[in-house]
Write a structure and sequence with these properties.
It is a single chain. The protein contains 13 helices and 2 strands, in the order E-E-H-H-H-H-H-H-H-H-H-H-H-H-H. By secondary structure, the protein is mostly helical. It has 3 domains: 77 residues, Orthogonal Bundle (Endonuclease Iii, domain 2); 101 residues, Hypothetical protein, domain 2 (Endonuclease III, domain 1), CATH 1.10.340; 38 residues, no CATH class. Strands 1-2 form a two-stranded antiparallel ribbon. The two termini are 31 Å apart.
Length: 273
């Protein structure tokens, strides 16, 4: 996987409202609220722990250029990365430039991307993306947030994916997993993705934003499932206010862990195969 790097900067998240204080139990057994400073320290400690759990994170969409990543990210809406990666080789072979997408035959493109779902709307976005890039950016994907969010098919989520992974510009990607986990961890109570992005941006150093996004998403897919998280083998449990939502028994929890890092994650929990 290769991608161009740029020193371009992106828009800093605006100041967001502080998360509500978290209640914790002190030595006396009484409840005490978590201060904002305490929340910052806990969030950064959890990020460091996630580095141990997932030392090698990456975008799980296959791409080699900023344009390919833009297309893959648009196709990933309401679709798994696995399905997108099965679909994009044929798409990328047929459409190599922004002009190719701008001039695409709608029926042919629809058939190629049909497996990703919502293929008519996605076709509109891809053709519109190609046209906008040709007309306004000389056929190249821009590398600033204000420019990216003007493109068809782009919101802040897609823009941050492209900035962070194609251009090396830090960005927080708030997908379903990210939003769910940071609320479960009580980093924020916000539900609007932009407000979540701003709130988390206040807690975590900017240079960490892209990798943090990957770590949280990895953790949500592998360990911290929506309905039945593997709490008993989660190395974040000591800092997680929701620990115990899933089974705390290690054997039961271990059976819930998914993904290629399973052996590593279980070893961290003291379980060896």
């Amino acid at each position: 996987m290769s991608a161009r790097k740029s020193a371009a900067s992106t828009t800093q998240p605006k100041a967001a409202s502080k998360a509500q204080p978290r209640s914790g139990t002190g030595r006396s057994g009484t409840k005490k609220a978590e201060t904002h400073l305490g929340l910052v320290r806990r969030a950064r400690r959890m990020n460091r722990t996630l580095k141990v759990a997932f030392p090698h994170v990456y975008c799980e969409l296959d791409f080699t250029t900023p344009l390919e990543l833009s297309v893959a990210t648009i196709l990933s809406a309401q679709c798994t990365d696995v399905r997108v990666n099965q679909t994009t080789p044929a798409v990328f072979a047929r459409y190599r430039t922004a002009l190719d997408y701008a001039q695409a035959d709608r029926t042919e493109l629809e058939e190629l991307i049909r497996p990703t779902g919502f293929y008519r709307n996605k076709t509109n976005s891809l053709i519109g993306l190609g046209q906008a890039l040709v007309e306004r950016f000389d056929g190249e994907v821009p590398h600033t947030l204000p420019e990216l969010v003007t493109l068809p098919g782009f919101g802040r989520k897609t823009a941050n994916v492209v900035l962070g992974n194609a251009f090396g510009v830090p960005g927080i990607t708030v997908d379903t997993h990210f939003g769910r986990l940071v609320r479960r961890w009580e980093w924020t109570e916000e539900t609007d993705p932009v407000k979540v992005e701003h709130a988390v941006g206040e807690l975590i150093e900017r240079k960490e934003w892209t990798d943090l996004s990957h770590r949280v998403i990895f953790h949500g897919r592998r360990v911290c499932h929506a309905r039945n998280p593997a709490c008993g083998v989660c190395i974040l449990a000591k800092d997680c206010p929701s620990a115990g939502t899933g089974p705390m028994d290690k054997t039961a929890a271990a059976a819930l862990v998914k993904g290629p890092e399973t052996d590593h994650l279980l070893a961290l929990a003291g379980i060896t195969s």
